[in-house]
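Format notes (please read before filing issues)

Several people have asked whether sequences and structure tokens are stored in separate files. They are not. Every record keeps both together, in the order shown below: the sequence lines, then the token lines. Line labels are part of the format and must not be stripped during preprocessing.
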Amino acid sequence: MKDDIYLAEVISVKPNKILVQVTNLESFKLPEEHLKVGSYIKVTNNDDAKLIAIIENFSIGFDKDNEQVYLIEALPLGVLEDDSFTRGGDTIAIPPKKVEPATIDDIKAIYNAIDEVKRLKFCSLSTNKNIEVPVDGNKFFNKHIAILGSTGSGKSHTLSKILQTAISSKDGNFSLNNSHIIVFDIHSEYKSAFPKANFLDINTLELPFWLLNSDELEEILLDIGERDNYNQSSIFRKIVTLNKVKHNPTVQNIFYDTPIKFDLNEVVNAIYNLKNETKSSKNPDYCMIDDPTIDKEIGQFFESDDVKINYFFDKQLKFLPTKNSHINKGMYADGTLDKFYNRLSEKIRQDRLNFIFNNDLKDIEFVNVIKQILGYDSECSSNITVFDLSDVPFEVLTITVSVISRLIFDYGYFYKRHRFDKNPSETINNDVPILMVYEEAHKYVPNSELTKYRASKIAIERIAKEGRKYGITLMLSSQRPSEISETIFSQCNNFISMRLTNPLDQNYVRKLLPDSLGGIIDILPSLHQGDALLVGDSIVLPSIVTIDRCDPEPSSSDIPYWSLWKEEWKSVEFEEICQKWK
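Then the structure lines:
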């Protein structure tokens, strides 16, 4: 009919864009839907194939008769033929026959392209909440994920909903599925969302100091700005290595970074003795130890520095003063180790660092550390481990994340080797895959070269670049994507981008997302709370979705300031608060 011809028609076709002119917008749209940016239209070429396009913007123009018309600019997404959707918008015939809004059945057919058994469902189409938008669960979790959005946009709820869905989905009648998730919770938000989680905080986490590698140990214990840092590092490496040899006589090829037990108190003893030692002026190989069993005129002979250091491990010794003419100062009498000794002694005595430096941890079994991190507790196993980092001192926050991340990567590597040793024809690298969730990731993997972030960046970048080979993937959540290490962020294949108001963050995300998205990215600043642009290998096509509400929710809801301020003055228990503070 003539009215149908002029109701809507394609007036321009570009490689990645079509322009549709509509004369009567009310008649054009479907009765049950509202047209808006993000809605879908279909362009018919023949009776079977339909080009599906997403609306990017509206404008008003005038035709040759000076009558008002509506111009719709749309991004071609793919072709729907026989209820089968194929990505790609370059198959439109010229001229197209008909333009109309995509029906609910059309849109459902698009998303039904994902096999039912692979579907992960946590959101619906923002333009029509009755249409579920599933993703391919395998492609979603086996490739790195980024959840981005300004504060208050709904990142925590989105993260919780995805993880709740993951740990509750089952192919069979059993209590726990095979999901294994580690969450670094920097604001203590997720305990309420996962009440059955393996919950570890500063009081329950056991992360023994002997598991720290060289970078991690020195970042905590050495003063980076000290002029004597090189000397301190050199002697510390030697002492720790010798102490590991002492406590592990059956282990061969021991190095500074070898993850085996040693005694930190003995290391402190050795440093104390080295900084205070005095030597015989006649023979520097003799130490002038103030001990009744040692000749005070001759001193104690050591055939090598290694033998001497091993002797120094036992206790803090007294040395004869240099006022005697036959006694000289030791090698470190210039104060090289003084500040280092004080810093080291103070660190290991801090109660708030007990989860790392408690002397009892030197006897903890390595296998028990791994079991605790992965939720394989003998009494109560759990799919998800939540590390509450809110009470972890700032100076060891990145180290804590670094150690755990590094251990999990190494575990994945050796687990793969174990599987292939047992069965060389094995095709799956890891049948117990792990997801590492870094909440507020910009705080410990920033786009910064500062030394204090070095250890955590190395550990997490390694997972980003190589982790998928060993069944370990990342989920990053951040309100400042422009501040995240580009090496890590560029490895993400799935993006859930919520409202972003900062222009730097918008441009950063725009650079990382596919060029084919066109102007749809411009919607990021105006998304509603809980809405997101979902893009990646796991979804049939880029979509603007509304995330389903999680249950239970994380403790990150907005505080109703105005409602609370209008209530009666409330008393505060300052004494109890200050006691917790101390």
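For reference, the curators noted about this record: The CA atoms of residues 420 and 426 lie 6 Å apart. The longest strand covers residues 49-62.
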